Structures are given as structure tokens and as C-alpha cells.
Amino acid sequence: MWRGRADRWTRYREICDTVGNIKTLRESAFRPTFAAMADEIRHPFLHGLSKHRGSPPTVIVIFGASGDLTARKLIPAIYNLAHDGLLPADFYLIGFGRKDIPDAEFQTLAADSIKEFSRREMSQEVWSRLATRTLYVSGGYDEKGAYDKLSKRIGELEKDVGQPLQSLFYISTPPTVFAPIIQNLGASGLAKRHFGGSQHSKVIIEKPFGRDLASAKALNQELTTVFAEEQVFRIDHYLGKETVQDLLVQRFANSIFEPLWNRNFIDHVQITVAEEVGVGSRAGYYEQSGCLRDMIQNHTMQLLALTAMEPPVSFDPQSLRDEKVKLLKAIQPVRLDGPESDVARAQYSAGMMGGKEVPGYLSEKDIKAESATETYAALRLSINNWRWQGVPFYLRSGKRMARRVSEIAIRFKRAPGSLFAESDRFNLAHNTLAFQIQPDEGLSLILNAKVPGLETRTQPVKMNFRYATTFGSNTPEAYERLVLDAMIGDGTLFIRGDETERSWQLITPILEHWAKEGRKGMDSYVAGSWGPESSAALLKANGHIWREP
Amino acid sequence: MPTIFDVLPGMEVPVDGITRGFAKLWENTEEMDQKAMQLNLVVHFGFATTEKDALEQFQVAGRLAERYPCRVVILCPMGDDTKEKEMRAKIFGECFTGKSKGDTRCIEIVALSYPPSAKSYLQDQVSICLSTDLPIYFWAHRFTSSQRIGSYRHLLTRSQRVMFDSAIVSADALSYAWPNISAVRDLAYTRTLPLRQNIGQFLSRYAPALIIEGLQEVTIRHRAQLAGEASCLLGWVKKGLVRSGANVDQGITFTVTPVDCAGCFSLQFIYSDKKKHFEWSADLTKDNAEFTGDLGTGKSTQTVSAHFLVPEAALAEAMFF
Q1: Were A434 and a residue from A223, A299, A409, B26 both cysteine, which residue would form a disulfide, CB within 3.0 to 4.6 Å?
Q2: How far apart are CA A40 and CA A282, in angstroms?
């Protein structure tokens, strides 16, 4: 038997060694050099496993454990990672919150959230393994003793497993307690656990990263006093969406786009992040935030950066984020008032959504009649670089819009010449490439085609690529990808401190101007419509109109 | 006596009527728009494929196509003794309802039965069933002779991946000079991914030098039917030891022993220093494994899951990674 097995091994080695070698060559050819180097320094028994299958033993601590995001997104994401076998065997989840609840109760809450919000049905087998590793520590966010207790608990877990655990702190709380959490992570020594080693602590922080430039700087200062920048993972879940990552692939893996991706061929770009929902029960938060802070400063600006940036030299975290920052720096300051203002804001008035009447913003619960908070914002941006000079970028976002949709639409210039001059026979559309981020993820391209018949007549036609149809819709959620990326220390899809500051640098003058003006200049739009007249006027000046995707 | 082609589901159509057959199949259905394709999968049944097995692999291909929409073409060779001179075709379509209408996905499978005399024309006959702009993946199942499969050179060289299961194909598959060796993947190896991941993560807690220092023997015990997987695991362990700096050709004994035990699978490192040890012991029927280890840094134990990838996941792993 042994001889037979030995022969088999020899044969196996022949083929697998060859395959293995060639795989290594392919990786170094297509991936950045640092990645190949990273693979070289991986533990010998982790070689050949994808980086996402080699995350170190980890304890994730969620601050804000009883919050909505934890229940809807974070716990289901962790469960699905467990389901896919992507969590390390030594994995623990600790909920941290003010409520004093035993581990068992937190486990029940976690199980309930998986049942309600997971993209997969809960498997008792998978959950039973994770449940015993789901723990809870109670304490005030500003109470140093609670962090010492947390530190002790993590230390005990390390003793149990007999090896160091990477601590990943997920701050999913209101921004008012960001500072005490960060300070106490520093004071208790949790931030510097295993610092300098592969199991050093990391922190994920949820938006908002400040509410203006000054507070963003203060938050960054707070963070970098306690953590090194490479320990910090500022999360914008839009970057975890497959379609947002696909934008980079479409741009940089298809040679047909790059030659056209500039002012010579592109007429303008529209980026829309539209919500159907109103302010709902979030009046307290929203009144302090508004659309510009809630959506434009983060999600929409990220989409803009990815659409317009130069190709990075590689997809390593620094190169990609360097290009985004360069792009943000090239955006010109906006004109705030006068007939050529680049900004518009509005509140929704009573209207109709899905055939039902809905109240206006000022009639919503807990909204003051004199509220000057915008539920809609639109910007016209100019990018002062060789590629984009003269191409307007229109950004808009709003609540209670006609349809929930996030998309990036690239509108190309018309074909030159008069072969098909506009007439009744020639219904010509601008070629438009639209990336739909959500829902119905995919992309479409508007082309002009001949209508069948003896006469040459043209008509716009739409080519559609739908993600769900081709790849299925049960793909990992953004939070799954991002939590796992943070666990393995890959910051590519996270936002760097200087990115947030540059973005706030653009937005803060608008916020200050609007704060000074109060309700003066606040437009309105009917709930269920595509936005206010003042927003349409931003485009009209250039002969453009908003899409109704 | 039914052939493997006969037992496969689907509607028999003329070989030159496959496209028309599908058009008719989807005619006036809402599902017409739900068809998409990202790749082609050619499944080639070998002579060792039984009717029952063919049906099972048909379902595996269907489940893969549900997850990764693709055109599946199943090739069913007739025996050398057949008097048939013509090829036969069957088409099969099925839709899966998702959470929403937009999530409904439909698959199309073509089965082709061919006599030995059609072998030289097979390449063209298969090509018209495929969307050849998209990647082709070739899965050779239960073949009895590598040389015979090796003669399908067109598929072997054009395919993004060539997959077979070393546990059930002819023994020479692992040493055969496949024309595009870099594309070859062994399903028995990919099937062991969850085991390799768990063992790798556990061993990665130790410095490589600690793992190899004083290592005298590596033992794998396995259920007799899992000889292929055990062989793959042994290959992987050897590679890990070599990367750790060990000379596996000298001083370390490797033993692979079949045992009469339903889900048993274990890996043990034995050291000259009797205080040092490492063992992973799994019961695959219970999806459970225990680690115990002490390589000089204190005793560690751990309980983890232990299972192979299901067939369609192993296929996907082999195809995409």
C-alpha cells in the first residue's frame, strides 16, 4: 500500500508542482509586486490560499452593539462570512454597549438579526459554532473601567486559545461618542495591542467622519493620536458594493473606454443617489445632518472620484487612494450664489409615493416648521485637469424622489458630421453609458440603431448588462467584503484621512453659506418627483437635463 | 439497455436543430429575457460513468449553472462496439425563481451522444453549441484513459481550465503530459480546501522553524474511499514543510494509511522530542475536527468544522481560482 501511495504522491507532485509554479508566475504577472511579495512572506502553510482565507485569529468588538446597523448589517455579515468558511477558526465577536446584558441574551439578539436580515437562511450548524463565540461586555463609552474589562476579556480569550488575537474595533455609534471611544481605546492600551506585529489592533469607523472640515480634522487628529493611519479603516459601504468595484474594472480592464474617457468625447457626467424614503424616524439625526452631509460628501463624492480619477499604478491601498485624493484636489471651488450658482438645495413638499399621499418634510414628525435642513442637494462641479477641463459633473441626491436609484451616467458627445442630421427620420440619442449601482445592479449603453425597413430611420436602443442575471443576486453584501478586508488589513476600499478632509474642504463652504442664509434660497420639490426647478436650472445653463433613470 | 445519454433529462432534438429547439423551448415564456451566460462548461463523461453517476453529475452541472449562468454541453461517448453512426442531441432548460423577478435565472444544457466515428468532427459540433467568445471550461469525468482524453486537443488547449477528479479517473492522469498543464486542476485537491484552510490557519500560529524542528514522521489516516483526497492533502503538507525549510526527502517518513472508519481523516506530526506533537483529527460525517498541538509554546486545542467542498463548489473553486 505504501509503495502505491508513494507512487501516487510522486505523480501528484509532478502535476501539482507544475500547476503551483505556473500559478505563482501568473499572480506576479497580474498583481502588484507588493502582493506577490506579501504572498512570499506569508506563512508556508497559508501559501496558495486566497488572502481572504488567511485572516489571522480575530476578535471583533462592536461598539453600538444594540444599534440598527449592527442588527441589519454587521451581524448578518459576520454570519455569512462564517457560512462561507472565511472566518478564522479562532474568531470571537464581542458586543459592547451601555445595556447590561448577559452573553446569552446577546446571542439571542444576534440570532434574531440573522433570521431577519441575513441574505441566507440561518443554518443552525453554522450558527451554533459562532454563537458560543459571541459575547457581550457592558459599559459606558466614556468609562475607562469598561475598556479595562474589555481588555481583560480579550486577554482571557487569548489564554484560552493559546495565541494572540487581532482586535478589530468596529465603531458603529453616533458620532458624539467617537471621541471617548477612541480615547479610551488608547488609554486602556487596546489600541496598541500587539502593535508592530501581524495581529495589531485595527479600528473601523462608520460615517460621518466629521460634520465639516474642522470636525473632520479634529476626528482625524483624535484617531491618529491613538492609532497609526494603517490601523484605521473609515468605512463607506458604497465602496464595498460589487457594482462600485466593477466601475474600476470596466474603466481599466476594457480598452474601449479609456480613449473616450475625457473631455474630447464626454459631454457631461451625472451622478444620482436618490432615495424613496422620507426622513421617517430619523428626524433628530437628519436635522443635524441634511442631504449634503448625509449623502453627497461621502457616497456621491466617492463615486465621482472613482469615475474621474486617473488609472492608479496598482490596486494597492495607497495608489488607489492617492489617485482619488488627486482628483478631489482638482475640483474647483463652487459658486455659491448669483445666477450662475453651482449649488441647489430643496425640501420635499407633500406629494405622492407609490400611489399614496405623503406629507412634506416640514410636516414630518419632529421637524420644526422653520427647518432649514435640505432633503435634496445638487452640485455642478468642474474638474480642473487635462482630462476633464470643461466637462460638467452633476451630482444630486435627495429623499422622497421618484425612485430609489444610484447611478453614474456618462453622456458622450454626438457623432460629428451631418450624415444623420436630426430630423423626423433620425431620432438620435447621445450615447450614454450608465452604471447602475443599486437596485438592479448593472450597466446599460444607449446606442443608435437602424429601424428595420426600406427607409433608413434610426432609433435609440439600449444594451443592458444586469449583474443578477449573469452572476446571480445572492452575492456577498458590501459589509461582508469590507469587514473581511479590514480583518486582513487591506484598506483599498476604505477612505483615508486626507480623502475625508479634502472632501469636507469642498463641502464646508456650501454648508457655511447655507447656514448663513437660513431658509433663504431653499427650493422645494414635490415628494415623488425628480427634484426641484433650481436643480434643473444647474443643467439648463449648459443645455442639459437630468436623467430620470 | 439504456445508455448514459438516454438517462439524462431533456428533449431529444436533431443535432442541427439545437438552436431552434431552445428557441421553441423558451417561446412565449417570460423567462426568455432571464437567460444570461458568463462561461461555457463542457462536461465529458468517460466510459466509467454509470447511468446513476451521469445523472448526479448532470445535477452538479445544473447547480453550478444556476450559480454561474453558463452554457453546459455534456458529451456522452458511445462505446467502441456501437453500430451507431450518427450523433444525437438533447436539450434541457430550467429556470430558478429568485427573491425577485429580476433574480430569476435560467439554464440551458445540451447533451450530445457521439459514436467513435464522429470523434474527429466533435470539435466543430461542440463549437456551435457554445458561446465561444466566453471562456470555456472542460471537465473530464471518470475517464479510463488519459491518452484518450488527451486526444481532444482542441478542448484541452482552448479551455481556461481542464478539470478532473484524481480520485476517480485513470491513475495516469496525474502524470500525463497534458497539452496545457497550467490549466489543469484536480477536483480532489480543490475539494480539500476547507481542510487545508483550517489546518493552515492552525499551523500558522507556529513559526515555520518550530514546525520542522525534530519532525520525524507525518501520518495521514483516512477512510479507504478517500485515498485521492488523502494523497492531495499529503502533497500539500509536503509543500508546506518544504517552504518551511524541511528536506522532505531525508529524515521524515510519510505514511498514508487507510482505516475502516466512516468519516475518519487525520493528520499527525511526530517529533523526536516526545513533548512536541501536532494532530488534526476529523470526523467528516459530523463536520467536526479537533486540533491538539504543542510545538514547544504550550498546549493548544481547537475544535473546527471539517468537510469537503460540495461538488459544485469544488468545480467553481477549480474554475475560478
Answers
A1: A409
A2: 49
